[in-house]
Amino acid sequence: MPLNRRRFLGRTAATGAGVALTGAVGAASATAAEQPLVGQGAHGDHGHGRTKRYAFTVMGTTDLHGNVFNWDYFTDAEFDDKAHNDVGLAKISTLVKQVRKEKGRRNTLLIDAGDTIQGTQLAYYYARVEPITGARGPVHPMALAMNSMGYDAAALGNHEFNYGIPVLRKFEQQCHFPLLGANALDAKTMRPAFRPYVIKRMRTPHGRDVRVAILGLTNPGIAIWDKANVQGKMVFPGLEEQAAKWVPRLRSMGADVVIVSAHSGMSGTSSYGDALPYVENAAALVAERVPGIDAILVGHAHVEVPEYRVVNKETGRSVVLSEPLKWGQRLTLFDFELAWERGRWQVASVSSKVLNSNTAEEDATITGLVRGQHRKVVAYVNQRIGTSTAAMDAAEAPYRDTPIIDFINHVQAETVRAALQGTAYASLPVLSQASCFSRTAAVPAGPVSVRQVAGLYPFENTLEARVLTGAQLREYLEFSARYYVRTPAGAPVDPAKLTNAESIPDYNYDVVSGLSYEIDIAKAPGARIGKLLFDGKPLDDSAQFVLAVNNYRASGGGNFPHVARAKQVWANSEEIRNTIIGWVKARQVIDVAKFASVDWKLTRDGVPLF
Fold first, then answer.
1. What was the pLDDT predicted at 14?
2. 561 is in which domain, residue-wise?
3. CB neighbour list of residue 422: distance below 8 Å, 6 or more residues apart
4. Which of 161, 196, 499, 524 has the smallest set of CB atoms within 10 Å of its CB?
5. Where does the 5'-Nucleotidase C-terminal domain lie (predicted)?
6. What is the per-residue pLDDT across 436-474, written as a single tens digit (0 to 9) for each?
7. Cα angle vertex 482, ends 480, 486, to 5°?
8. Per-residue DSSP letters for 471-540?
9. How far, in Å, CA of 271 to CA of 186, rounded?
10. CB 176 within 8 A of CB 227
11. pTM of this prediction?
12. Final residue of a structural domain among 342, 377, 412
């Protein structure tokens, strides 16, 4: 599941669908030593041969999330959004070839900052339906594409662990480049479970190679979000701690340039609160506090940052950070200028920018490699699995009680009730939480396909059951209601401005079924929940309930109160998406009248908003 993507503060300028950030932490500009060498060419001598110099470019992607084609498997159509962005490695490959032609292949590197094998139905199919781990398992489509493109290294993202370590290890075997994770450690030996770094040699015209070290760092939140897959097997200490350990080693090994590929945003925030002692979005802190880093390719936050400069407190030198927009919508270019000084290569300047993949055609080499797998997945997602008695969509789900969210909760609660039969908890009422995971999710009236049902739940979450009291549920709902902007009674209502979705994503606003309640958005956060009823009566604070909850929330994702420490009475390893698909296959009919009801509403001073 994506995480709490709090937008990093800085001077902003719109660029496509993302956010472009520029600025500096700790100083206004780069030091004089980092300014470009005036008049220098890429590979010639400065002046009359007094200074040898060399230029090279590092290209970077991140958060590809299983996108090869410019295709949306949930809509069964070419991808498009309001900004007319395109997605996929096939488009990125064309840009990469253009850069290599311009710069010279030997003067470029290509790296990634993680979240590669989860996100589309293409990725899901080759993890679960026809898994790459099978006896005659296929090569993962992302490995096929990235191998063909000539990636030099990729950092591990947190979503790499969603399908379990065996799938990740098989993917690692299939890649012709290393997967890097200096802070992914074996739980028993505390040694790196993956390669921490790779050093690439860039041949220069001067007979002196440039040694470029790429250090990979992943997200400590893996210990929470994929606890079921990694507990007792791997641990994930903080990025700053591990960078401070490895960067000096890389320098002592002769690295002229150190680049960090970090699956960690820049904002300094965490979506898991105090559940871990490490910062989730730590890239800027690493740049500021760990000396010896020249540039950081940033991932995880799903925002566009063409260039951001952070001044290192110890050296006074600026570190350049860049994050290309997710899914292959952008390609970062780090341009390095080096000069030969005092018997070694020194970084004279670094700059970065992003290229937009919607300017490129898809590379026929990449689409040709993966076309067979793509067609197989398109056929799979278009299988009819049942019918719906009415159309449902999520367009208004962030601010109204809608049948489509009721449906998710209905399936989850029914699944947990069946699982608890015959146990000590069978007599407790079962409630359920769900969020608006996609505002474009829709189920039509009539025939329903795999892709339409899968579109309700685009994340790889699994289902758990936790025991909470009425008082804890009240606090849970109050916390969830922070999502709404405080809006005085009588003021005009603009649904587009009701939510704090910029800082609290839709997936961190929970609807709880099985209760009825009002959310008074004229009141301050923390005092908004009113008329909280169970079975038509005021909620008893001491009563116990079972909450059907996804593993992201149960593990502390979103930092909701109580649930992470509540007693777990059941859990399984099947994705909720698959549970819903299985439910529809088994029953054949989604009878909307059986679960759709208005149980919560927004009010202002007690007056319903709608």
1. 31
2. 383-608
3. none
4. 524
5. 385-564
6. 999 999 999 999 999 999 999 988 888 999 999 999 999
7. 145
8. HHHHHHHHHHGGGBPP--TTS---GGGSB-TTTS-GGG--EEETSEEEEETTSPTTS-EEEEEETTEEPP
9. 24
10. no
11. 0.83
12. 377
Q: Which domain-ending residue is among 343, 377, 411?
A: 377
Question: What burial class does residue 241 get, using C-beta atoms within 10 Å of its C-beta: 0-12 exposed, 13-18 middle, 19+ buried?
Answer: middle
* Structure confidence at residue 46 (pLDDT): 40
Q: Which CATH number belongs to the domain containing residue 239 in this structure? A: 3.60.21.10
Q: Which parts of the chain sit beneath pLDDT 50? A: 1-48
Residues 490 and 561 in one domain: yes
Can you tell me the distance from the alpha carbon of 489 to that of 520, in angstroms, rounded to the nearest whole number?
Answer: 10
Query: Is 292 part of a structural domain of the chain?
Result: yes
Looking at the fold, whether 313 and 340 belong to one and the same domain comes out as yes
Are 89 and 232 contained in the same domain?
Answer: yes
CA 580/CA 405 separation, integer angstroms: 12
Check if the beta carbon of residue 346 is closer than 8 Å to that of residue 339: yes
Instruction: Give the single-character DSSP code of 90.
Output: H
Residue type, 338: L
* Domain membership flag for residue 41: no
Residue 14 CB contacts under 8 Å (≥ 6 apart), including other chains: 20
pLDDT for 50 equals 67
Nearest CA to 251 out of 293, 209, 208, 286 is that of 293
220-243 pLDDT, tens per residue? Answer: 999 988 888 999 999 999 999 999
Q: Are residues 349 and 418 in the same domain?
A: no
State the Cα–Cα distance between residues 478 and 486, nearest whole angstrom.
13
Q: Can you give the pLDDT at residue 310?
A: 98
Query: For 503, phi and psi rounded to 5 degrees?
Result: -110, -25
Same domain for 405 and 500, yes or no, is: yes
411 shares its domain with 351: no
Distances (CA, A) of 37 to 40, 45, 46: 6, 11, 8
Domain containing residue 434: CATH number: 3.90.780.10
What pLDDT does residue 273 have?
Answer: 75
